[in-house]
Amino acid sequence: MENLHLLFQPIGAYLSDTTSNVMSYGSPCSLLSPYISSYWGTEGLTSEGSVQEFEPSLIIPDARVDIIFTVDHTNGIVHSGFCGISDYPDYAWSIRERSNMSRFAIQFYFWGAQYFISDSIANSYNAYVNIETCFSGWETFFEKMLLNVIDFQERVKLTEQFLIEKMKQNQYNHNVMNALSNILHTQGTSSVKEICNHTVVSQRQLERMFKNYLGISIKKASNLVRYQNLWRDIAYAKIGTIQDAVDKYHYVDQAHLLNDFKKFHTMTPRDALKLAWQ
């Protein structure tokens, strides 16, 4: 399989390191890195007064999907869910949690989850669903592991052992991955017709495959990839003027680019930069 993750590195709305004292992050091993972007969660348990109040955080569509676990160690309960691919921005509001809580999450690239699912993720688009809907049998393992293991790095280690056992290479869909390769190589600028021509598959067939394996349409996948590449160029000053971006990413004009960016980011590129590095 082509290492698509080398072609696409999405970023969030915030680029300054303002959450390192609250959350821990871990990178996947080389075997899992083509599918998994990262692991994230709390380092240890919350205690009385340890959870700070934050301003609501902007969550932009980053073409990644997450399995999120919230662990109540006092009552021995693990709440879990699968956050499917989203194509609209949202805000995460801080909630003062009770003490003796922890969180842990697995973050996949939007094409990566297909190698682990037990059923289609067609109904996960813009949704938060029970993990058993797509990952049958996972709740039992993670409930036991997360209640007994507190250390973040140890959680990552045990999770990776579990994921390697669950990985299903036979679920590789050549047509979907070939189409994704085209989308990522062209940074989301290929038309649906061009993508279908590249795969030599009819649009109707390919759309059905995308929905089953990725939970999203061809056009929406392309738009997300284009937006994320545009945002990375803007954030890291890799592009000159807005008109340069219009030309590079095949927008009709500057108004088209700005409207598209605001749809995903809620604000103009200039305001997004101010927020990103605050």
From TrEMBL:
GO terms for molecular function: DNA-binding transcription factor activity; sequence-specific DNA binding. Residues 174-275 form the HTH araC/xylS-type domain. It comes from the Bacteria. PROSITE patterns: HTH_ARAC_FAMILY_2. Gene3D superfamilies: Homeodomain-like. This is Helix-turn-helix domain-containing protein. It comes from Anaerocolumna jejuensis DSM 15929.
